């Protein structure tokens, strides 16, 4: 029997042979959500680009506070003020440029207005309610590094610097091969005896898109070695990465592993992982072939832990490991010979965030994943007792 490979050992071995494709394209910032930045970005302008008011109120010299002042001008956002007359205040609105001579803004709620005059309270601190030029960012300052995955905040930051387009890694082209004579595509009115609807295609297409890939072909494999070999040969001509589901276990009808061996190289098979033991990785014509198990929850876990980092690595992403945090266990569990990734929910008990797994951890149960907040990491051989700190991966950080 082939020895089970620990998850981290398998991932390290795979990623050692994965290099960024180096193919880039310039795309509009408005369309760059989730894309991987290919070049470091340096600030082109100061932010804020000019000193401005952080509040609706009155701009004045701090030395003039504590008395009644004439209102010498009104400044709205987008207007260019004149220098502030000595001994006066300017009516100013949030985001409007501060006039030369003013060094403080006093909120309108703290002032008493009487016609064209205003009584302002005494203040001693220069700069109150003022956002100074370059306070957040100075021109020339590094902002985003190559390999950064662009989220909404990063897109807003790029736009705030005047960028309309950005250079990102091209999306890796992914082919999906799905094994199983029992699979029937959704939409069929009748489900024959012994058949199941194909959920893995929709699941995987979503996961691939979330990881920045583009699905360029889908093959439904007949359960024969010849059909599997033919589809794999077509897929490697079409795509940069091939992902298969099913057909990687030890059954007589599992042909993906022998097909990879026949056409290329099988680098590893079978992980010390639950769910997801029958995982395979190899290459055909230099293209990575990722063999995922057939059960939907196993697909979800093995894609998230192994296929997702591979797709990100080909795009030159900087952060490949899933984001994780530590929470308090509200359960107990005996350690086993394989690392387990349990679908679980987060609960608040008297101000303490705790986590507990769902009762149904079957590798075929997909509904539990839709109700889960996290994957709970149960390491090999480690017993978990209630109150222990356990590592969890928020599912929303993966997809």
Q: Could you explain the architecture of this structure?
A:
- This protein is an alpha/beta fold and 399 residues long.
- The chain folds into four domains: 7-22 and 171-314, Molybdenum Cofactor Biosythetic Enzyme, Chain A, CATH 3.40.980; 26-43 and 140-169, Alpha-Beta Complex (Molybdopterin biosynthesis moea protein, domain 2); 52-131, Molybdopterin biosynthesis moea protein, domain 3 (Molybdopterin biosynthesis moeA protein, domain 3, Beta Complex); 325-397, MoeA, C-terminal, domain IV (Beta-clip).
- The protein is built from seven helices and 26 strands.
- It has helices at residues 7-16, 152-160, 200-210, 225-238, 256-263, 296-314, 367-371, and strands at residues 24-28, 41-42, 52-53, 57-60, 68-75, 89-92, 104-107, 112-114, 117-119, 130-131, 142-144, 165-169, 173-179, 183-184, 196-197, 214-221, 241-245, 265-269, 273-274, 280-284, 287-292, 325-329, 339-349, 352-357, 374-378, 389-394.
- The strands form seven sheets. A six-stranded mixed beta sheet has the order 7-4-6-5-9-8, with no helix packed on it. A six-stranded mixed beta sheet has the order 16-13-17-21-20-18, sandwiched between helices.
- A hairpin with a 2-residue loop joins strand 8 (112-114) and strand 9.
- Helix 3 packs parallel to helix 6.
- The longest helix is centred in the last third of the chain and has 19 residues, at 296-314.
- It is elongated, with a radius of gyration of 29 Å.
- The two termini are 35 Å apart.
- The relative contact order is 0.13.
């Amino acid at each position: 029997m082939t020895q089970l490979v620990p998850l981290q050992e398998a991932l390290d071995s795979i990623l050692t042979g994965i290099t960024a494709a180096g193919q880039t394209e310039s795309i509009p910032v408005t369309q760059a959500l989730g894309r991987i930045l290919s070049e470091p970005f340096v600030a082109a302008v100061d932010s804020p680009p000019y000193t401005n008011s952080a509040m609706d109120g009155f701009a004045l010299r701090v030395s003039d506070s504590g008395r009644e002042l004439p209102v010498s001008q009104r400044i709205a956002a987008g207007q260019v003020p004149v220098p502030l007359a000595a001994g006066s205040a300017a009516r100013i609105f949030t985001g409007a440029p501060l006039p030369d001579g003013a060094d403080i803004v006093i909120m309108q709620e703290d002032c008493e207005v009487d016609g064209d005059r205003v009584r302002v309270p005494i203040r001693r601190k220069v700069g109150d309610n003022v956002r100074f030029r370059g306070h957040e960012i100075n021109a020339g300052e590094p902002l985003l590094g190559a390999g950064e995955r662009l989220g909404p905040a990063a897109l807003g930051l790029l736009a705030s610097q005047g960028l309309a387009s950005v250079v990102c890694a091209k999306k890796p082209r992914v082919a999906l091969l799905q094994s199983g004579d029992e699979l029937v595509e959704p939409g069929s009115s009748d489900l024959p005896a012994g058949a199941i609807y194909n959920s893995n295609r929709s699941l995987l297409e979503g996961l691939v898109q979330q990881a920045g890939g583009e699905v360029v072909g889908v093959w439904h494999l007949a359960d024969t070695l010849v059909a599997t070999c033919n589809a794999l040969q077509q897929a490697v001509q079409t795509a940069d990465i091939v992902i298969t589901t099913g057909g990687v276990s030890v059954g007589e009808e599992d042909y993906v592993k022998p097909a990879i061996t026949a056409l290329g190289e099988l680098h590893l098979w079978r992980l010390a992982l639950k769910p997801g033991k029958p995982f395979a990785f190899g290459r055909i014509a230099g293209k990575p072939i990722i063999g995922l198990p057939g059960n939907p929850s196993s697909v979800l876990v093995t894609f998230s832990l192994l296929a997702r980092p591979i797709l990100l690595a080909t795009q030159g992403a900087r952060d490949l490991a899933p984001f994780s945090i530590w929470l308090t266990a509200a359960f107990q569990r005996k350690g086993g010979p394989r690392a387990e990734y349990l679908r679980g929910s987060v609960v608040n008990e008297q101000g303490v965030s705790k986590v507990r797994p769902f009762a149904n951890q079957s590798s075929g149960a997909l509904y539990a994943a839709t109700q889960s907040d996290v994957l709970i990491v149960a390491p090999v051989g480690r017993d978990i007792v209630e109150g222990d700190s356990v590592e969890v991966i928020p599912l929303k950080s993966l997809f």
